[in-house]
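Researcher: I'd like a structural prediction for the single chain below. Treat it as a standalone chain; there are no partners to consider.
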Amino acid sequence: MKILTASQMQRIDRLTTEQYGVPSLTLMENAGRGVVEFLVERLAPLESQRIAILCGRGNNGGDGMVVARMLRERGLKPRVLLFANPQSVRGDAAANLDRLTGSGAPEIVEDSQAWQSIRPSLAGTTLFVDALLGTGLSKPLEVFLLEVVRDVNASFPAARVVAVDLPSGISADTGELIGEHLRADSSVTFTAPKIAHVFPPACERVGEWLAKPIGTPAEAMEDDPELFLNLTTREDVAWIARPRKLTAHKGTYGHVLILAGSVGKTGAAAMAAKAALRAGAGLATIATAQSALPIIASLGMEFMTEQLPETEAGTISLRATDYGRLDKLVEGKTVLAVGPGIGAVPETAELVRMVVNKYPIPVVLDADGLNAFAGCMDAFRADARPPGATVLTPHPGEMARLTGQTTAAIQAHRVEAAREFARKWQVTLVLKGFRTLTAAPDGQVWVNPTGNPGMATGGTGDVLTGLLAGLLAQHPGRPVPEVAASAVYLHGLAGDLAAEGFGQASMIAGDLLDAVPRAYKLLAEGRTP
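Model: Treating it as a single chain, here is the predicted structure.
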């Protein structure tokens, strides 16, 4: 599902009319109908509601007037307030004002005096429909409309508020809050979500949101390089849970080699291997430092292990490459995961850089595998494998070290940072955090909606590494960024299921592993928690 700016949405609406022949008045009619459908589905019986519809003079107000007319056609008697001079209403909104007037003209509220006069009569309102401004706002509310917003927020705390497109006072084009806004319990947007619906802190203020189709064909948004933001949906990832062939065997689903672990950091390697198997990989092998191997082997019965020479610090030594030993280990493997618990010893970091640049199979790079390239991304060979086939999974601090920026700078411009990095180095970049991003070499970015703060605990990143590697092993024909975005969604869904069972505060990474089968089951059944 695309995520759009206000100007992109306007352009798509225009294209829908000019190229696909859907009149703009029809789009507005469909938008209003979508809001009414939402009200009927979520707030029934509407006959028990005392409804007030707040309309501005623009297209958002026009949507609100369609809502008012359709509710009247159902026999309801909503209050309709137009916060503008009727002569200032233009275009499709004016047409719908005329149609609404046929069943009763709206109450005109042009200034503060009129608002303060009418406000007491709204006492007892149980449902406000906010159709004041929609997606057209680019600066903070001022004077009159600011007064209206403040009064509604303060005077009607028990009333539900359903916003048409966006709560008035929120800009569609940023996750930042540009000023005060009308509180909303729900938002009904059209065709696709806007940036404010998806990114914090604005996404926390729009309430439950739903994108309603209004007649724009899917092809109107396809193959447009300007539309590079995508929200990953359950439908996008359902393919990972399709039934397996009856003739399948373990070799059908790939063999993951995990170069990971060191003395004192053995759990990370084991969790990555278990996650790869939970994701559905046929086989998983952990190659690790000699002293760490017995502990890692004791942590799981389903994965295999291979011991490698170690440094004095108990990490994998560069001597693992002697006599082609590592070459033989990589031979026949489908995916290589590097980094969980591998340690930050310079010799091991050198080994990581060599491995990432040498083998042509897909690579998932995490944790200290990423830190091996901190301050030396010039040592990374973008041509070591096809574009996107190297997957990097940094959290913001690791991303800052890779780019030489501050963590604060990365956090302030997450989409831009991820997109620029993926394009420059021709990798798939998974930037972890709230709304984890998956950026592809072609500039497309997927935003993940699953997950919760309970996942902010040690080891969950290792689980993601394993899920990524396991899905890549099973689906070698799929575009790597698509697989990566699906793994991120699955990871977050497992986290949400774990939170349902344990609560966020007490969750540990192992709970995610246990929840992966239930996440798969939900996807297979077409359900979410």
